[in-house]
Amino acid sequence: MEKTGSEAPPPSYSESLSAPRPSSALTGAVDTHFLPHVHSAIVNQIASTILVVVPSNVSALSRTAESPSEKESTPSAFPGETFVGFSVSPTAIRLSGAENSLEFWRRPAVLKELEHRLRRTLEDEGYSIVHRTPKPQSNATIAGSRNVDWKSQDLKVLGDGEAKMSAEVEEMCLRIENEMGLYETRTGKAVIIRVELGIREHQDTEWIE
Fold this sequence. Notes:
By secondary structure, the chain is an alpha/beta fold. The protein is built from 6 helices and 7 strands, in the order E-H-H-E-H-E-E-H-H-E-H-E-E. Strands 1, 2, 3, 4, 5, 6 and 7 form a 7-stranded mixed beta sheet that branches. Strand 6 and strand 7 (183-197) form a beta hairpin. The N and C termini lie far apart (64 Å). 27% of the residues are buried.
Protein backbone atom coordinates (compact mmCIF):
# COMPACT_ATOMS: atom_id res chain seq x y z
CA MET A 1 0.00 0.00 0.00
CA GLU A 2 1.37 3.39 -0.97
CA LYS A 3 1.23 6.10 1.64
CA THR A 4 2.27 9.55 0.56
CA GLY A 5 1.22 13.13 0.98
CA SER A 6 1.41 15.51 3.90
CA GLU A 7 1.96 13.83 7.27
CA ALA A 8 2.45 16.97 9.36
CA PRO A 9 1.56 16.48 13.06
CA PRO A 10 -1.62 18.13 14.33
CA PRO A 11 -1.18 21.64 15.75
CA SER A 12 -0.42 21.91 19.46
CA TYR A 13 -2.83 23.59 21.85
CA SER A 14 -0.76 26.76 21.94
CA GLU A 15 -0.51 26.80 18.13
CA SER A 16 -4.28 26.42 17.86
CA LEU A 17 -4.79 29.43 20.11
CA SER A 18 -2.29 31.59 18.24
CA ALA A 19 -3.41 30.51 14.75
CA PRO A 20 -5.32 33.12 12.74
CA ARG A 21 -9.08 32.86 12.56
CA PRO A 22 -10.57 31.03 9.55
CA SER A 23 -9.81 33.07 6.46
CA SER A 24 -11.64 33.65 3.23
CA ALA A 25 -10.47 30.18 2.15
CA LEU A 26 -13.10 28.69 4.46
CA THR A 27 -15.90 30.93 3.23
CA GLY A 28 -14.96 30.37 -0.41
CA ALA A 29 -14.81 26.58 -0.09
CA VAL A 30 -18.04 26.37 1.92
CA ASP A 31 -20.04 28.59 -0.43
CA THR A 32 -18.60 27.21 -3.67
CA HIS A 33 -18.06 23.51 -2.97
CA PHE A 34 -19.88 22.33 0.16
CA LEU A 35 -23.21 24.10 0.54
CA PRO A 36 -24.44 23.35 -3.02
CA HIS A 37 -24.32 19.64 -2.17
CA VAL A 38 -26.16 20.25 1.12
CA HIS A 39 -28.85 22.30 -0.62
CA SER A 40 -29.20 19.60 -3.28
CA ALA A 41 -29.69 16.98 -0.57
CA ILE A 42 -32.38 19.10 1.07
CA VAL A 43 -34.25 19.83 -2.16
CA ASN A 44 -34.09 16.22 -3.38
CA GLN A 45 -34.62 14.72 0.10
CA ILE A 46 -31.40 12.67 0.02
CA ALA A 47 -31.07 10.87 3.34
CA SER A 48 -27.27 10.60 3.47
CA THR A 49 -24.62 12.84 1.92
CA ILE A 50 -20.88 12.33 2.38
CA LEU A 51 -18.25 14.73 1.04
CA VAL A 52 -14.57 13.74 0.95
CA VAL A 53 -12.69 17.04 0.90
CA VAL A 54 -9.06 16.54 -0.18
CA PRO A 55 -6.72 19.37 0.87
CA SER A 56 -4.46 20.75 -1.82
CA ASN A 57 -1.22 19.25 -0.46
CA VAL A 58 -2.42 15.67 0.16
CA SER A 59 -0.88 14.20 -2.98
CA ALA A 60 -1.79 10.61 -2.08
CA LEU A 61 -5.47 11.33 -2.72
CA SER A 62 -4.85 13.30 -5.91
CA ARG A 63 -3.55 12.44 -9.36
CA THR A 64 -0.77 14.17 -11.24
CA ALA A 65 -2.09 16.13 -14.21
CA GLU A 66 -0.93 14.64 -17.51
CA SER A 67 -1.53 17.69 -19.69
CA PRO A 68 -1.57 21.49 -19.27
CA SER A 69 -5.35 21.56 -19.74
CA GLU A 70 -5.83 19.19 -16.80
CA LYS A 71 -3.74 21.46 -14.56
CA GLU A 72 -6.20 24.30 -15.08
CA SER A 73 -9.06 22.45 -13.43
CA THR A 74 -8.59 19.52 -11.07
CA PRO A 75 -11.47 17.06 -11.54
CA SER A 76 -13.54 16.11 -8.50
CA ALA A 77 -13.43 12.43 -9.43
CA PHE A 78 -11.35 10.17 -11.63
CA PRO A 79 -12.45 7.12 -13.63
CA GLY A 80 -12.07 3.92 -11.65
CA GLU A 81 -11.57 5.54 -8.24
CA THR A 82 -13.29 4.37 -5.06
CA PHE A 83 -13.08 5.71 -1.53
CA VAL A 84 -13.23 2.64 0.70
CA GLY A 85 -15.30 2.29 3.86
CA PHE A 86 -18.62 4.02 3.15
CA SER A 87 -22.13 2.59 2.92
CA VAL A 88 -23.08 5.24 0.35
CA SER A 89 -20.92 6.56 -2.46
CA PRO A 90 -19.20 9.77 -1.32
CA THR A 91 -18.55 12.84 -3.44
CA ALA A 92 -14.88 13.82 -3.78
CA ILE A 93 -13.97 17.51 -3.66
CA ARG A 94 -10.33 18.28 -4.39
CA LEU A 95 -9.21 21.73 -3.27
CA SER A 96 -6.41 23.76 -4.80
CA GLY A 97 -4.18 26.60 -3.64
CA ALA A 98 -1.76 26.99 -0.75
CA GLU A 99 -4.54 28.39 1.44
CA ASN A 100 -6.35 25.01 1.30
CA SER A 101 -3.59 22.91 2.85
CA LEU A 102 -4.15 20.09 5.32
CA GLU A 103 -2.54 22.23 8.02
CA PHE A 104 -5.29 24.82 7.53
CA TRP A 105 -8.27 22.45 7.38
CA ARG A 106 -7.22 20.40 10.41
CA ARG A 107 -7.27 23.42 12.74
CA PRO A 108 -9.93 23.00 15.44
CA ALA A 109 -11.18 26.55 14.86
CA VAL A 110 -11.67 25.86 11.14
CA LEU A 111 -13.55 22.60 11.72
CA LYS A 112 -15.69 24.25 14.38
CA GLU A 113 -16.61 27.10 12.03
CA LEU A 114 -17.33 24.62 9.22
CA GLU A 115 -19.74 22.67 11.42
CA HIS A 116 -21.34 25.95 12.50
CA ARG A 117 -22.00 26.89 8.86
CA LEU A 118 -23.47 23.47 8.13
CA ARG A 119 -25.67 23.59 11.24
CA ARG A 120 -26.92 27.08 10.43
CA THR A 121 -27.78 26.05 6.88
CA LEU A 122 -29.82 23.07 8.08
CA GLU A 123 -31.57 25.10 10.79
CA ASP A 124 -32.46 27.81 8.27
CA GLU A 125 -34.22 25.08 6.28
CA GLY A 126 -36.27 24.12 9.33
CA TYR A 127 -34.28 21.09 10.49
CA SER A 128 -33.70 20.23 14.14
CA ILE A 129 -30.11 19.13 14.76
CA VAL A 130 -29.65 15.80 16.53
CA HIS A 131 -26.33 15.36 18.30
CA ARG A 132 -24.48 12.16 17.51
CA THR A 133 -23.73 9.59 20.22
CA PRO A 134 -20.97 7.46 18.67
CA LYS A 135 -20.17 4.17 20.35
CA PRO A 136 -16.59 3.33 21.36
CA GLN A 137 -14.80 1.54 18.54
CA SER A 138 -12.36 -1.35 18.87
CA ASN A 139 -9.01 -1.48 17.10
CA ALA A 140 -10.40 -3.89 14.54
CA THR A 141 -10.79 -2.54 11.04
CA ILE A 142 -14.00 -2.79 9.08
CA ALA A 143 -13.85 -4.12 5.53
CA GLY A 144 -10.13 -3.44 5.46
CA SER A 145 -10.57 0.26 6.21
CA ARG A 146 -10.19 2.39 9.33
CA ASN A 147 -13.21 4.45 8.29
CA VAL A 148 -16.37 3.65 10.22
CA ASP A 149 -19.63 4.84 8.74
CA TRP A 150 -22.29 6.52 10.86
CA LYS A 151 -24.64 3.57 10.60
CA SER A 152 -22.23 1.46 12.61
CA GLN A 153 -21.84 4.22 15.21
CA ASP A 154 -25.34 5.52 15.76
CA LEU A 155 -28.37 3.43 14.83
CA LYS A 156 -30.94 6.07 15.81
CA VAL A 157 -33.39 6.65 12.98
CA LEU A 158 -33.88 10.33 12.28
CA GLY A 159 -37.43 11.58 12.49
CA ASP A 160 -39.24 13.90 10.15
CA GLY A 161 -37.40 17.23 10.09
CA GLU A 162 -34.38 16.01 12.06
CA ALA A 163 -30.79 16.18 10.83
CA LYS A 164 -27.25 15.51 11.95
CA MET A 165 -23.92 16.55 10.52
CA SER A 166 -20.21 16.53 11.23
CA ALA A 167 -16.89 17.66 9.78
CA GLU A 168 -13.81 15.69 10.82
CA VAL A 169 -10.31 14.98 9.54
CA GLU A 170 -9.93 11.26 8.90
CA GLU A 171 -7.48 8.86 7.32
CA MET A 172 -8.88 7.87 3.94
CA CYS A 173 -8.27 4.84 1.74
CA LEU A 174 -8.48 5.49 -2.02
CA ARG A 175 -8.49 2.67 -4.57
CA ILE A 176 -7.73 3.75 -8.14
CA GLU A 177 -7.22 2.06 -11.48
CA ASN A 178 -3.95 2.94 -13.17
CA GLU A 179 -3.10 3.11 -16.88
CA MET A 180 -2.33 -0.63 -16.92
CA GLY A 181 -5.81 -1.49 -15.68
CA LEU A 182 -4.44 -2.53 -12.28
CA TYR A 183 -5.74 -1.27 -8.96
CA GLU A 184 -3.56 0.45 -6.39
CA THR A 185 -4.47 1.68 -2.92
CA ARG A 186 -3.39 4.97 -1.40
CA THR A 187 -4.00 6.51 2.01
CA GLY A 188 -4.07 10.11 3.14
CA LYS A 189 -5.95 12.54 5.32
CA ALA A 190 -9.07 14.38 4.21
CA VAL A 191 -11.95 16.33 5.73
CA ILE A 192 -15.07 14.17 5.82
CA ILE A 193 -18.36 16.06 5.86
CA ARG A 194 -21.40 13.97 6.72
CA VAL A 195 -24.99 15.18 6.53
CA GLU A 196 -27.98 12.97 7.26
CA LEU A 197 -31.58 14.08 6.93
CA GLY A 198 -34.82 12.70 8.29
CA ILE A 199 -36.97 12.49 5.17
CA ARG A 200 -39.91 14.84 5.40
CA GLU A 201 -43.17 13.01 4.87
CA HIS A 202 -45.19 16.11 4.08
CA GLN A 203 -44.02 18.82 1.71
CA ASP A 204 -45.61 22.27 1.60
CA THR A 205 -47.76 22.72 -1.48
CA GLU A 206 -48.32 26.04 -3.15
CA TRP A 207 -51.91 26.28 -4.35
CA ILE A 208 -52.78 28.43 -7.33
CA GLU A 209 -56.33 29.72 -7.41
